[in-house]
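Hi V.,

You were right to ask for the full record rather than a summary. Here it is.
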Amino acid sequence: MAHRHHVPERFLRQLWKHQQFNTTHLFSTEGKPIEVLSPGVLNTDGGPDFTDALICIGNILYRGPIELHQHLDEWDTHDHHRDTKYNGVILHVVLRSHAGDAVNITESNRTVPVLVLERYLTHTFRETWDAMLLGERAERLATIRCSDVNDTVGSSTIETWLEKLAVERIEVKVRRFEERLKELVEETRLHVNEPPPRY
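Predicted structure:
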């Protein structure tokens, strides 16, 4: 995986959530074996990216939040070392790190174990990225209300519904055009230079 790629955080979240890497023989940057029993629950609020993860580091079982970043140094650049919300992080998962990177310290002065994923990726960056996008799309489709009964809806109902949506969309566009035309008329009226009267 080349270092020139910028990786969006949503890619990292999908990668971790679905464990799309070689999960056997994981080791922290300190050389301790890591076993992911549960990746946790995606956090849609402020704070660490995942909550309630279950991770075995060395021979100790931890339950708590996970933080994800592209690079190890983002822990400090994002000021997590000063934020009490990150005191409970049990594992900092990063895509890549460089030799000589500093350790991650919490606000409570605790060192956070680090897992670097780059060495455990089993596919090329492009293949992994495509798999993540497909997985993300499948998740979105699965969360559409009543998606499991869509096949039972009659074609006439779908046609009526599509026609109604089409009319609504056209009406919205017409209203936007009308509003824009009114704006243009007002702007033109303000800039009209009438010729001086001859009398």
